[in-house]
Amino acid sequence: MTTSDERKDTEVKRRVSGYGIICFLAFLCLLVLPCGQSEAHGLFQNHSASALLMLPLEDAQMNLHLSELPIVKPTDPDQELKMILRQEMKRIDRRRLVVAMRLGEKLHMLPDAAPTSGEGAVASVGKRGQESASRFEALIKLTAASFEDEKVIEEPEDWDTDVPQVAIADPLEPINRVFFAFNDKLYFWVLRPIAKGYRYAIPEPFRVGFRNMFSNLAMPIRAVNCLLQGKFKGFGRELLRFVVNSTAGFLGFGDAARIGMHLDPQDEDFGQTLGVYGAGPGIYINWPIFGPSSIRDTIGMAGDFFVDPLHYMVSGTRETIAVRGGDKVNRVSLSIGDYESLKKAALDPYVAVRDAYFQYRRAKIEK
Length: 367
Known about the structure:
The protein folds into two domains: 77-150, no CATH class; 173-366, no CATH class. By secondary structure, it is mainly alpha-helical. The N and C termini lie far apart (120 Å). The model is unreliable at 32-69, 109-125 and 146-164 (pLDDT under 50). It has 16 helices and two strands. Strand 1 and strand 2 (291-294) form a beta hairpin.
């Protein structure tokens, strides 16, 4: 038993030593192999150098010059600048980039336009690319420096004067949203279905004629406010329109003054008159049924009500509701889809309607 155990131990030691020798030889091969490759590469380089020495001078210079150039794809400087601009726009806040671009435009730092074809384009590619790159780099530095530590640059007054920056105050927003939801349901559940049936039953020329009749009756509202605002020419136009449409237009059913004499209505009201004399809108109010308004326009609505001849022509409450409701349904039948488009495109329909109303009234006052 002792002899057999010794034999087994001797055989195991022999195998382990054999495996160790094999691993050592493999390790030496790994060390020697890179050295051989580097020597072979050096021999290849020496052979190439000797081959270049054997060539004529011009060929050797040409081969050497071509070997030093990296293999790259041809690039367009304008395309590279557009890609860089797209990347920088992702990093920089939109508002900051807009102001920086405006500064760059004022300081002539934006890339200039250049010929896109012909010899002029070929000759100016390199110079234009360098100038555009330097200007764009300066523009990015200006963006970073202009807003360091969250400092805001004051823009000159003549920059984007047509973009409104003022919003109407809305302290009653919770109540206004409730009334807005009520008016929204009233429109989609009651007014819109009735207007669609009315539109299906009455042809469009008659519906336009009915709208012209109500507009012709409201002439005193526009004429009086033109007079109060000092628009005497508009006052005369309104009187002339009323005479022409009431006679040649069959009591206003046809807008003969616009078709034949190119006299458009002035579209003035007491709310605009108050705004012309310096009255601010106050706060935003979304009235049930009547819709968007403000304190100033609500007061103006009351003034228009007392000047409107329809208020004196129709005395009964039911008759007034019927006549004014019919006018409202007729006007909605001519504008179905406008409110739907605004609501569909807006993230917050309430804010969209409020801002649209405020900007619309502001534009009419400033006109």
